[in-house]
Amino acid sequence: MWIELTNLWIALINIIGIPTCHLSIAWLCTRLPARYFEKQKQASNSNSLIYEKIFLVRYWKSLLPDAAPWFNGFAKGSLSSTKIDYLQSFVTETRRGEFSHWVQMLAISLFIIWTPPPAHFIIIIYAVFSNAPCIINLRYTRLRILSLIGKKQSKHHG
Question: What is the pTM of this model?
Answer without folding.
Answer: 0.88
